Amino acid sequence: MAPFARPPSWRLFGVRLLHLNLGLVVYGLSIALTLRAGIGLGPWDVFHQGAALRTPLSIGQVMVLAGFALLLYSGFVARVRIGIGTVLNMILIGVWVDVFLARPWFPAAGGWLDGAGLFALGLALNGVATGLYITAGLGAGPRDGFVLGLAAMTRAPVRRVRTSVELVVFAVGWALGGSVGVGTIAFALGIGPAMQAGLRLFSGLERRYRRADRRVGARDAGRDAGRNAGHEAGRNAGHEAAGEVPRAATD
What is the CA radius of gyration of the chain? Predict the structure, then answer.
């Protein structure tokens, strides 16, 4: 597991961290809405819900534990780089799901039409949240990291590995009693376009982060070059004061 690197700018890191956490809050909200819609869930959430039904754990706690297991595999077996965003993603999405579901004012579908509306809102917010947390640039979520690590180890295409993983967790979750329905199909068909729209929505922020990173890198490189030049000038002055001729002068 790669260690966390010191950020080049703590101010920029703080902005990215705020950006990431906003994305994780919205992600938790999106999942809570699809759960309350009652018309089916995406593959991973079918698994999370099914496991929660078979254990004393809440669905949010199952999400955290599943994410932790995947993070351990990704970091120690597949050697995928773990960022602070990966760890926060693992912990906070499940926490926010439980927080929203525990609120008495949180909406719940009273019928199929209400359910379709809640699910559509949750799916759209999931795309927004994915765009938010990814463009913060602080690390992929544990499930994405797991897919990337497994693809690297098996030398299989990422799309094939992702499809296979989601089919497996869907089948296990369905067997455990997770909710499967028209929402499951809607999620499978809609999450790609929703994610693409979210990434496009926040691509401008991502470009600004990259420009800021380059400015900080150039500033630090200039500062180091100036410091090295000063050290070299000081050494040469010391040589001259001692009556020595710097090697460069004899070349």
Answer: 25
Taking alpha carbons only, the member of 187, 155, 156, 197 closest to residue 47 is 187
Instruction: Give the C-alpha distances (Å, rounded to integers) separating 87 from 45, 129, 140, 142, 195.
Output: 19, 16, 9, 8, 21
Q: Domain coordinates of the chain in residue numbers?
A: 10-201, 210-244
pLDDT score at 166? 87
> Which two structure tokens, joined as six digits, stand for 188?
């499978």
The tokens describing 183, both together, are: 């929402």
Helix axes 59-72, 84-102, angle to 10 degrees: 170
Helix (H, G, I), strand (E, B) or coil at 135: helix
Using CA atoms, how far apart are residues 51 and 173, in angstroms rounded to an integer? 7
Number of neighbouring beta carbons within 10 Å of residue 20: 24
d(CA 127, CA 27): 8
Q: Do residues 2 and 81 touch, judged by C-beta distance below 8 A?
A: yes
Quick one: pLDDT at residue 249?
47
- Residues, the chain: 251
Rounded Cα–Cα distance for residues 147 and 142 (Å): 9
* Burial per residue of 117-129, b for 16 or more beta-carbon CB atoms within 10 angstroms, e otherwise: ebbbbbbbbbbbb
Cβ-proximal residues to 23 (8 Å cutoff; 6+ apart), any chain = 129, 130, 131, 132, 133, 134, 136
User: Average pLDDT of the chain?
Assistant: 84
Residue 203 vs residue 47, higher pLDDT: 47
The string of pLDDT tens digits covering residues 88-116 is 999 999 999 999 999 999 999 989 999 99
pLDDT confidence of residue 196 = 85
Looking at residue 155, the DSSP 8-state letter turns out to be: T
- Within 8 A by CB and 6+ apart from 210, the residues are none
